[in-house]
Each structure stands twice: as C-alpha cells, then as structure tokens.
C-alpha cells in the first residue's frame, strides 16, 4: 500500500475522516497534484515541486502550504505558529472545514506555486 495512504488510514477518527476529506479536496481542486510520502508525511507535489502537506498532531490536522508566506486570502484562518514561510489550516473536526475557504486557499496557493520559497 502507498505509504501516504497508509499514514492517513492508520490515524484515529475523527482525524482520519478529516485527512481523507482534505486529500479528496486537494485532488479534486488541483488535479495535477500528486500525493507522495516525504518526511514521513503525505505531501502533494506539482511538477516535482512541493505544494502542500498533511500533518496529524495530537488533537488536530494541519494542511500546510509550502508557499504560505505569499498567501493573502483568508489570512484570519491561516496559522503560522513560528514558521517563517509556511502557513496552515488547522482542523479538529470535519464540521470545522469550510469548503469554500479551503477551495479558495488551494486555488490561491496553486497560483503562487512558481514563486520563490522566500518572500
């Protein structure tokens, strides 16, 4: 089995459902994104470049954007937690996911994918 898929399927509920929902959304909104397993995490790559990755912590799931420093939409929902360049969306429950915000952040991140990592 694909290690990225195994990572997701081994997580407890409700986090497994959140991870599966985020995976499906990324793959639907950004069809060219390829799910790989890097740094022991499920990572989405576009044309061999990192785009975003999924991370499970003790009580939430993170969708982390590689070029997060460049994101300007929905910044009130984006968390940087001491990171200089990456920003993420945190989810503790499936119901917390606002599909419209998620889609808009994904599309903005996709439009910024060719920018330099450093702002």
Task: Explain what the structure shows.
Residues 16-109 form the YdhG-like domain. The mean pLDDT is 92. It is globular, with a radius of gyration of 13 Å. The protein has a five-stranded antiparallel sheet with strand order 1-2-3-4-5. It has 119 residues and is an alpha+beta fold. It is 29% helix and 24% strand. It has a single domain, classed as Alpha-Beta Complex (Aspartate Aminotransferase, domain 1). It has three helices and five strands; from the N terminus they run ααβββββα.
CATH top level? Alpha Beta
Number of helices: 3
Q: Can you tell me the CATH topology?
A: Aspartate Aminotransferase, domain 1
- CATH 2nd-level architecture: Alpha-Beta Complex
Alpha-carbon distance between the two ends: 37 Å
| Global morphology | globular
Mean pLDDT: 92
Looking at the chains present, what oligomeric state does this protein adopt? single chain
Approximate strand percentage: 15-25%
Domain YdhG-like: 16-109
Protein name: YdhG-like domain-containing protein
Organism: Aequorivita sublithincola (strain DSM 14238 / LMG 21431 / ACAM 643 / 9-3)
Pfam families: DUF1801 (PF08818)
